[in-house]
Amino acid sequence: MLGKLFRKKSTEQGAADTPSAKTAKAPATLPPSDPYSRAKAEFNDIYGQPIVQARNWRFVAITTSMIALAAVVSLGIRANQSKFVPYVVQVDKFGAAQAVGMADKGAVNDERIIRAFLNRFIKDARLVSFDPAVQKEAINRVFALLANNTSASAKMGEFYANNSPFDRGMSEGVEAEISSILRISDKSWQVAWTERTRDPSGTVRNQAVWKATVTIAFNAPTEEAQILVNPLGMYVIDFDWRQEL
User: Fold this and answer.
1) Rounded distance, CA 186 to CA 177, Å?
2) In a domain, 75, yes or no
3) 173-183 β-sheet, strand order
4) What's the CA gap between 70 and 56, in Å, rounded?
5) What count of other Cβ atoms lies within 10 Å of the Cβ of residue 150?
C-alpha cells in the first residue's frame, strides 16, 4: 500500500515539474512566409548596414566641416584686428617729449587742432581761384568736412549754387585771411576773417571783414575713404556767416 502511494506521489511531482505546452516560449522570430518578406529581409541584410553607415559618415563630415569653417572665420577676424596700440607723443620745439598718451580716435581735445580745422574750412569755403583745378580741390575738401543730411550741407550747396566760384573765377579771385577763432560753447566757435577780392592782375578790388558761427561735431571715421579725407572725424554740422559793416 505504501509503495503505491509513493509511486503516485512521485508521478504527480514529475508531472508538476514538466512545463506544459501552453507555457512554452514561442520562437523569437519567425522566418518570412512569403517571397516579398524574404526579399525585403535579404535586402536589409545586404544593403541596410552600408546605407546607415554612409548616412552617419555624412553627418560626421558635415559637422566637421562646419566646425572647421567656424575656426577659419574666427582666425580671419583675429588676424584682421590691430595688434598695435597707437600713442600720441607731444614734443616741444627742441624735440623733447612733453606728453605721452594713448591715441583716442573718438575725441579731439586739443583746441589748436580745432582751430586749424576751422581755419582750413573757412579758407576753402570762401576761396575763389582763377585755376579751376585748384577751385575743384577746395570744394571737395569743404564737402569732406560737412556732415551729411545737416543744415551745413544744405547751406553750402545753396551758397555754391547762387555764387558759382567757377564763374567768378573767370574775372576775379577771393581769398580769406583768418584774424581770430574763439570758442563760444563746447560745440560752437566764432571765426573772424578779412576777405580780399582781386582782379586777374592781382590788384585788390575790395576788402571786407566777415564773421561766422560754426558748430562742429565728432564722428570717428570707420572707412578708408573717410580716413583719407577727414582722419580726425571732425565735421561741420551748421554755420552762419555774415559781412561786418
Assistant:
1) 25
2) no
3) 173-183, 188-198, 204-218, 234-243
4) 21
5) 17
State phi, psi for 222 to the nearest 5 degrees: -120, -10
Per residue in 144-183, pLDDT (tens digit) is 999 989 999 999 999 999 999 999 999 999 999 999 999 9
Q: Is residue 219 in a domain?
A: yes
Rounded distance, CA 39 to CA 43, Å?
6
E-strand stretches of 156-227: 173-183, 188-198, 204-218
Q: Which three cell numbers stand for residue 2?
A: 505504501
* 196: CATH: 3.10.450.230
pLDDT in tens, 110-156: 788 899 999 999 999 999 999 999 999 999 999 999 998 999 999 99
The parent domain of residue 237 ranges over 111-243
Residue in this structure with the C-alpha cell 550741407, named with its chain if needed: 153
Question: Using an 8 Å Cβ cutoff, are 211 and 190 in contact?
Answer: yes
Is the Cβ–Cβ distance between 211 and 242 less than 8 Å?
yes
